[in-house]
Amino acid sequence: MGHAIFEQRSGILGVAVVAPCGVIAAEQLRGLGELTKTITVHGMKMTTRQTLVFLINGGELERFEQEIAKIGLKIGVFGNIVRNVKGCAGNDQLCQRSFGDAFALGAKIQDQFMNQPVPKDFKISTAGCIRGCTDPYCSS
């Protein structure tokens, strides 16, 4: 179990940042933009697990973690634990096909269970319709 912080061959750290079901509020996005002006960011990558990986220098990790927390985001987790929920944005406001509020459900599940120990790496997906754009039938 641990935080999703991985040292690359170059010595740069890849740090996964998570938001509820991958949805980042406008103010959080502005905060991330401001943060990238104050530390060295070598690049960013969006992942299929709805995380945003920042490539930063190791010496800036502590400050990065503090600033991420201030804007209401979290560092991802990995190992034999419940990972971040991959959830669709399904609700009346965000998806015309949704049968219910899959976003709220996914966010609640993530908030309650993420980082809880389990016998194996455990991943959850939620979907609000049959299309399953978050791969709920084969979450891996």
Please, what is the oligomeric state?
Answer: single chain
Number of extended strands = 9
Q: Provide the structure class.
A: alpha+beta
> On the 0-100 scale, what is the average pLDDT?
89
Describe the structure.
The protein has 140 residues and is an alpha+beta fold. It is built from three helices and nine strands, in the order βββαββαβββαβ. It has helices at 26-38, 61-70, 102-113; strands spanning 2-3, 5-7, 13-18, 41-46, 51-56, 74-75, 77-78, 86-87, 125-126. The strands form three sheets. Strands 2, 3, 4, 5 and 6 form a five-stranded antiparallel beta sheet that branches. The longest helix is centred in the N-terminal third of the chain and has 13 residues, at 26-38. It is globular. The model has no long low-confidence stretch (mean pLDDT 89).
Topology:
Elements: E1 2-3, E2 5-7, E3 13-18, H1 26-38, E4 41-46, E5 51-56, H2 61-70, E6 74-75, E7 77-78, E8 86-87, H3 102-113, E9 125-126
Parallel strand pairs: 8-9
Antiparallel strand pairs: 1-7, 2-3, 3-5, 3-6, 4-5
Key features of this structure:
140 residues; alpha+beta; 9 strands; 25% helix; globular
